[in-house]
Amino acid sequence: MISTTTAKIINILPDKFVTYISKRVVDKYLKKYANINVKGNENLKGIKTPTIFICNHLSNSDGLVLDKALKEIDPTFIAGVKLSNNVFTSIGVNVIKTTNIKPNTADKEGLKKIIKLVKQGENLLIFPEGTRSRVGCLIEAKKGIFLIARTTGAPIVPIGLYGTEKLLPVNKEGDMSAETFNYADVYINIGKQFDFPKRAKEQDKKEYEDFATKYIMKKIAELLPENYRGVYK
């Protein structure tokens, strides 16, 4: 990984230079360490927009490899605000188009901004689990995906991603600056676009939320090997 000093220098440069250099750094690391395999590109042809892309989350490199795979779609990624505040992960944030949200909080302003982006026609990419899985498979989704998908009514494209947990493993102590790239095969499986499920007459609010969330997470699980499906097997 780049040194702390280099990372700090990059982040104090003018915005255009920060973006340019950050892209060069990220491209260098991905080209050197990641063997990226994409399946399902045909499912991106003729999709309705705006679209919400949903994907499982295993590593801080997820957004970087997905940005490569979805370059033509150019989605806005939902990123936890702490990624922008960290000297290392902010380099990745500089490369991809993001909007921030405060994880594990009722960030009403963040949600309003996200919903507004979709209604204005922006494609969106969200990691419904809200954090990287520390167990190497799907964990329960947060409430945000239900609220965003229901409010916007936008169609959804599921993506199954694996191998990034080896490319840039989560640091066990939670120190993102200590995370380093390793050689790894990365697999991106893009599914077919589908519509957010409608509420049945007999379902109350809580039943509908649980059903709809499980329904869309199962769409991700279907695109992953069984050992990555976790709570959505």
Give a verbal description of the structure.
Residues 51-164 form the Phospholipid/glycerol acyltransferase domain. One of its GO terms (molecular function) is 1-acylglycerol-3-phosphate O-acyltransferase activity. This protein has one domain: Glycerol-3-phosphate (1)-acyltransferase, CATH 3.40.1130.10. The chain is α/β, with parallel strands linked by helices. Helices cover 39% and strands 15% of the residues. The mean pLDDT is 88. It has helices at 4-12, 15-33, 62-69, 81-85, 89-95, 108-119, 144-152, 164-167, 205-221; strands at residues 34-39, 52-55, 76-80, 98-101, 124-126, 156-162, 184-190. It has a seven-stranded mixed sheet, sandwiched between helices. The protein starts with a helix and ends in a 12-residue tail after the last helix.
